[in-house]
Amino acid sequence: MIIGRHTDRQGRSTGERVTAVDRAGRPVTDAEHAAATRLLDALLDAAADHGVALDDWDRAADLPGACLDVTRR
Fold first, then answer.
1. What is the pLDDT of residues 35-70, one digit of tens each?
2. pTM recorded for the entire structure
3. C-alpha to C-alpha distances, 9 to 15, 17, 21, nearest whole angstrom
């Protein structure tokens, strides 16, 4: 598992957040987890320029889950 560069207020890394996403269907591969973590980190890098952190996203959307869904397509 990739740890990731960002953490939430509970200390969970972006990699841990992506790994915790539960999706039905075929198992998520290590490569998919890694790609989703890299995407999530990149989005959070851009959001940080606007003062937005991972916890802020949690109030509006499942960003870790969305990153996993996008990378699995």
1. 999 999 999 999 999 999 999 999 999 999 999 999
2. 0.93
3. 14, 12, 18
